């Protein structure tokens, strides 16, 4: 196989940079982060430009790199780069890959470092022709599959779990199957929403448990579009048609759209990531069939019923907790107020490489409105608490501004367990709810009271049955058996061992 690459390696120092040939980006190394955003267009002369616009709408799902692969039905063209969407593309680069069909990707690396070679969509050539792949999620058995293929001579070009799928697809015995892709997908364990682009077809896939969102829509001119979130449809004025169902393969060709199923019976269980509703997805999006803002507002209302307290105002930690705070305020009857100003010219604080850097980023991004909080009893609503370091800084700023009382209300349960399905949480030992009781966290944060939304209360706020969601980071109930812990840099370390 041949991997198509574009552009120089731009990554800065990382955990294994001492070994020649490895250059890793350490920006996210020790922080909670998400995974990726996918978008695809079939059948529009401006497909590349529509994809470019849609990637802006999905930038919140990954800020390390971006890429687009396109075709006019003959060969695939690729442009990718490290950085934000507006740093990767310009008019010239978009024109060079102009085509009627395109897939795009914004990446945060949950498996494999941020290197130029790992930027997606990945583009390969094998006996079956060209194929590009864009992946959202994490394969729990990728390291095991990779070792098996390396033992029989396969050479991997990247250190992502996504490349494993292509090696499976290229295997001659798999290509000989009546439905090669179905056969390949049944080898995979874990979370994967996929877009695959061949010169003559685009394929959208969602794993049988439906961990990550993926939806279908129609653009104004009738082109089919696929996206991780409906926010991308809104920007290009496309209409939402439906979700790609768990365990479904949707194939789009010149003949139209076709659907088929793969995977065995899941005993009625699903694994839609509840953290999409709690934190990651944009409030304007429909995710898993419901609006994110309304789900978060419902969580705020549930939190107000579970943990009422006398106070003067309800204030959110910007910006993700705003939806939950509005729900809390409406249910409690306590006025909603603004306590922070937010700078739109700084990135998310958890992408900084050191804790001191993250603390400074918070100070730049959030500034307390002193006159709004001085002498008042505050209910501070947060969407989730991971390490608690940045939350503690925000609470300290409110204290310094003269808040009389601070009652922290968290619109999700305590995060006590690692995620192996596409969220890059810190190690379990760094999760404050793993090492502290709720009372201990209250004392650490120096708040007057602390309450987390119960698991039952959270699940009562979303539409699907409870057994359709993955709550593993809260409950420890993993919907897929993980034979060995999924470690972000395992594949780099595997290559390192091969050369030393």
What brief labels describe this structure?
disordered N terminus; 2 domains; 23% strand; seven-stranded antiparallel β-sheet; 24 strands; Glutamine Phosphoribosylpyrophosphate, subunit 1, domain 1; alpha+beta; single chain; 500 residues; Rossmann fold; 19 helices
Rounded mean pLDDT score: 87
Q: What is the total tally of β strands?
A: 24
Shape type: globular
Tell me the strand order in the biggest sheet. Answer: 1-6-7-8-9-13-14
**For the report, how would you describe the main beta sheet?**
7 strands, antiparallel
Q: Which structural category do the helix and sheet elements fall into?
A: alpha+beta
Estimate nothing, just give the exact number of structural domains: 2
Helix content: 25-40%
Question: Any idea what the radius of gyration is?
Answer: 23 Å
CATH class of the largest domain: Alpha Beta
Count of helical regions? 19
* Fourth CATH level, the homologous superfamily of the largest domain: Aminohydrolase, N-terminal nucleophile (Ntn) domain
Can you walk me through this structure?
This protein has two domains: 2-269 and 489-498, 4-Layer Sandwich (Glutamine Phosphoribosylpyrophosphate, subunit 1, domain 1); 277-475, Rossmann fold (3-Layer(aba) Sandwich). The chain has 19 helices and 24 strands. The strands form six sheets. It has a seven-stranded antiparallel sheet, covered by helices on one side. Strands 4-3-5-2-11-10-12 form a seven-stranded antiparallel sheet. Helix 10 (292-306) packs across helix 11 (322-332) and helix 12 packs across helix 14. Residues 1-32, 348-353 and 496-500 have low confidence and may be disordered.
């Amino acid at each position: 196989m041949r991997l198509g690459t574009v552009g120089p390696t731009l990554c800065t120092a990382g955990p294994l940079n001492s070994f020649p040939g490895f250059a890793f980006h350490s920006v996210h190394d020790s922080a909670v982060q998400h995974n990726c955003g996918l978008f695809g267009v079939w059948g529009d002369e401006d497909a590349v430009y529509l994809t470019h616009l849609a990637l802006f709408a999905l930038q919140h799902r990954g800020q390390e790199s971006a890429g687009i692969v396109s075709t006019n039905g003959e060969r695939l063209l690729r442009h990718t780069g490290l950085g934000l969407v507006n740093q990767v593309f310009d008019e010239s680069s978009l024109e060079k890959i102009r085509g009627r069909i395109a897939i795009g990707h914004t990446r945060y690396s949950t498996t494999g470092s941020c290197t130029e070679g790992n930027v997606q969509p990945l583009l390969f050539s094998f006996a079956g022709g060209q194929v590009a792949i864009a992946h959202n999620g994490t394969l729990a058995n990728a390291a095991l599959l990779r070792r098996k293929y390396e033992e029989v001579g396969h050479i991997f070009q990247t250190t992502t779990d996504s490349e494993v799928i292509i090696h499976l697809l290229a295997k001659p015995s798999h290509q000989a199957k009546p439905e090669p892709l179905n056969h390949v997908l049944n080898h995979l364990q874990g979370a994967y929403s996929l877009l695959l682009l061949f010169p003559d077809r685009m394929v959208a896939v969602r794993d049988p448990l439906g961990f990550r969102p993926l939806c279908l829509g129609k653009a104004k001119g009738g082109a089919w579009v696929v996206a991780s979130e409906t926010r991308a449809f809104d920007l290009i004025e496309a209409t939402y048609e439906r979700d790609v169902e768990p365990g479904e393969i949707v194939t789009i060709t010149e003949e139209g759209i076709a659907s088929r199923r793969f995977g065995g019976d899941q005993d009625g269980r699903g694994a839609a990531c509840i953290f999409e509703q709690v934190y990651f997805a944009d409030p304007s999006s429909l995710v898993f069939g419901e609006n994110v803002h309304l789900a978060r507002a419902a969580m705020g209302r549930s939190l107000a019923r579970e943990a009422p307290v006398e106070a003067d105002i309800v204030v959110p930690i910007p910006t993700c907790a705003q939806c939950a705070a509005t729900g809390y305020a409406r249910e409690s009857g306590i006025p909603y107020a603004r306590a922070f100003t937010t700078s739109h010219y700084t990135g998310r604080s958890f992408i900084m490489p050191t804790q001191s850097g993250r603390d400074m980023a918070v100070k730049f991004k959030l500034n307390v409105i002193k006159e709004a909080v001085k002498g008042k009893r505050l209910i501070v609503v947060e969407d989730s608490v991971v390490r608690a370091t940045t939350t503690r800084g925000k609470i300290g700023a409110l204290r310094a501004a003269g808040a009389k009382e601070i009652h922290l209300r968290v619109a999700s349960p305590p995060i006590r367990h690692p995620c192996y399905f596409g969220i890059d949480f810190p190690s379990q030992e760094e999760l404050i709810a793993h090492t502290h009781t709720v009372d201990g966290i209250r004392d650490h944060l120096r708040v007057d009271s602390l309450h987390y939304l119960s698991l039952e209360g959270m699940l009562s706020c979303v539409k699907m049955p409870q057994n359709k969601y993955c709550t593993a980071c809260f409950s420890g109930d993993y919907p897929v058996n993980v034979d060995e812990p999924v470690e972000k840099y395992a594949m780099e370390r595997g290559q390192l061992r091969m050369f030393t």
